[in-house]
Design goal:
Layout: H1 10-21, H2 28-44, H3 53-66, H4 72-85, H5 90-99, H6 104-118, H7 122-137, H8 151-160, H9 165-172, H10 178-185, H11 193-196, E1 198-202, H12 207-218, E2 224-227, H13 235-245, H14 258-263, H15 272-281, E3 290-293, E4 296-299
Parallel strand pairs: 1-2
Antiparallel strand pairs: 1-3, 3-4
Length: 311
């Protein structure tokens, strides 16, 4: 028996949207995709499809946006909170929100709101997520037996989940679950020194960045590593870096990159706002490395410059 599908009309699209939103949270783009799949299925089954169906889909989506039933910012915040509780890394959280159709600005806003809610910053939030992930998957100190034999496998699980190697190693090699509780529950400014006293904004392809990291380790410092090209900073984070570095904000932007030339800007004429906007939109323009300790930061050019933070 040949399968059939309902004709695609404006009323059908609205009813399909209501049916979906009563059951699932969605972004505006997510709903568009659902309705487009309905149209594709109807066409496949040779059902009638109204003219200008794309305009009709957009009209339905905008109607629900205007009614407050579709709110990308609220959807992103709820989704980010849920993913964090499940131990999803910041990198995968960003990817999943973007796959769900949430724009980058709304993703940044959702993660900033989550940090405010938790009383954390991105690095501390990442620790909490890593501990939650290890607890849920019974990795490292949460294993009841064969811990050493499975260490490599546990580290690989953490890596696949999007956690940086240094953080994964700290979690997996922790003595016991109790030693991780402080990191898991810490509020801003109270995370243990062993975990989060120093953070390096790092590009592993940059020789200066690698030298600065090696220099820190030679001084007995195991910094948290923020690979900012994999985990791009939000605008608020760039603003914070500018304030912590101090001095001339133009020192934070790399004017030799192709992206900078495409923007057709003159470094000498840049305002702080233009610098922040450019780096937030094009993370490759961020000078590297930058090392952060407490409320201060230093650019590792030369790499030895970061040692001033350790005094």
């Amino acid at each position: 028996m040949k399968r059939t599908a309902s004709p695609i009309t404006a009323k059908y699209l609205q009813n399909a949207a209501v049916f979906y939103l009563e059951r699932y949270a969605s972004s505006a783009e997510g709903l568009r995709r659902v309705l487009r799949r309905r149209v594709s299925k109807a066409r496949l089954l040779e059902a009638p499809v109204m003219d200008n169906v794309e305009e009709a889909i957009e009209a339905v989506v905008q109607k629900f946006v205007a009614a407050g039933l579709l709110d990308d910012k609220a959807f992103a915040q709820t989704k980010a909170r849920s993913l964090h509780r499940r131990g999803v890394s910041g990198q995968l959280t960003r990817q999943r929100l973007q796959v769900a159709g949430v724009g980058r600005d709304d993703v940044d806003s959702a993660l900033a709101a989550l940090d405010e809610e938790l009383g954390t910053d991105p690095a501390r939030r990442e620790i909490q997520a890593a501990v939650a992930f290890a607890r849920r998957r019974r990795l490292g100190p949460f294993r009841l037996k064969d811990r050493e034999e499975r260490k490599a496998r546990d580290l690989a699980s953490m890596a696949r989940a999007g956690f940086a190697y240094d953080l994964a190693r700290k979690v997996i090699e922790a003595t016991d679950p109790d030693s991780l509780d402080e990191a898991r529950t810490a509020r801003h400014g109270s995370v243990s020194e062993a975990f989060m006293s120093v953070t390096i904004w790092h590009n592993p392809r940059c020789s200066k960045s690698r030298q600065a990291l090696d220099l820190l380790k030679s001084k007995g410092v195991e910094p948290a590593i923020r690979e900012y090209l994999k985990q791009p900073p939000s605008r608020a984070e760039v603003e914070k870096l500018v304030a912590m570095v101090g001095g001339d904000p133009r020192e934070l932007i790399r004017d030799g990159e192709a992206e900078f030339k495409r923007l057709k800007l003159k470094k000498a004429d840049l305002t702080t706002t233009q610098i922040v906007d450019a780096i937030a939109a094009h993370p490759i323009l961020l000078q590297r490395p930058i090392v952060v300790k407490d409320a201060h930061a230093a650019i590792g050019r030369p790499p030895e410059a970061v040692l001033s933070l350790l005094k």
